[in-house]
Amino acid sequence: MIREATLKDITEMQLIRNTVRENVLSNPALVTRQDYEDYLSEKGRSWVCVVDGALVGFAAVDLQNNNVWALFVKVGQEGKGYGKQLHDVMVNWYFAQSETPLWLSTDPGTRAERFYLRQGWTCVGSFGQQEVKFEMSKLAWQSQVINNLQKYPRDIAL
Q: Does the pLDDT value for residue 134 go beyond 60?
């Protein structure tokens, strides 16, 4: 089940973020509880995926800076579709609020990079010293949704 994140979810969100195998934070102390709180409502919105009462992933989007702040799935829960569900809810919400293209960055050569390419993101170059930058326009997102409806009409709940 995907739902909006609450203050009670932050500790588990931090645990997931700090235990991933890829896109590891060089200094986890630099991402504070306050950062998570800001993405619950002030800067954008956050969602969690809950399976059998346990939080297995989360996503957060920054409406002020037009970027994906986080999309992470708990180690051992990857490949089950939770990240895609979170991604789709997040991107749908973002483009309901804004016409501005959305961007994100991730480490090159990772599962995350391949995931974003499969979701229709466009690589637009490098970001910082070691990451790649992706963008998604509202039109590209709408096209991706239409393509998915045509490919998998029974899997899409409107």
A: yes
pTM over 0.85: yes
Q: Is residue 54 part of a domain?
A: yes
CATH of the domain at 113: 3.40.630.30
The range of the structural domain enclosing residue 103 comes to: 2-151
Give me the count of residues in the chain: 158
- Flag whether pLDDT at 33 surpasses 80: yes
CA angle 99, 91, 142 (to 5 degrees): 65
| Count of structural domains within the chain | 1
